Amino acid sequence: MRQFHVGRLLAATPLLEDPNFDRTVVLLLDHDDEGALGVVLNRPSNVRVADVLGDWADVAADPPVVFGGGPVEPTALVAIGRASSDMAEVADGWTPVFERLRLVDLEDDPALAQGGLSHLRIFSGYAGWGPGDLETEIAQGAWFPLDAEPGDAFSDNPDNLWRDVLGRQESIVKMYATYPEDPTWN
To answer: pTM value?
Structure first.
């Protein structure tokens, strides 16, 4: 039985030495016996959504840029939207993640989808793990598995998301929110 679920966050610990994930916060979108998949929430790029997917730009959350979702398939686009209300129906192609968060099919007509979305975030690429790999990395201390809040996926200050997510914890994890980029600075 899995101990981590779709909709949870993975905050990289200082022990994770992979530069792709330095101080990242990953939203877990899928986790089953075949592995796990998520998107990095705090790697905004300089590419504007309007320049890549102009029809979706009106509902893009601030900052309205494409985010680096992870090192796997960097040309693949993944979209997460927030349904405009708790009662919003799940449209064809919208896969529930948790609460009002949905995976959005970018092949849908943006004009029809926008009425049901209050926010949208576009990611280029994703983070992926094979069977058992994520569990191994967590056991080795590479990730803090944490509860997500609905606003995490649409933070208007993604550069501070790692620190903010760790800082709101009520455990020893909270002390990592002030962990210096270079431990020799202590």
So the answer is: 0.89
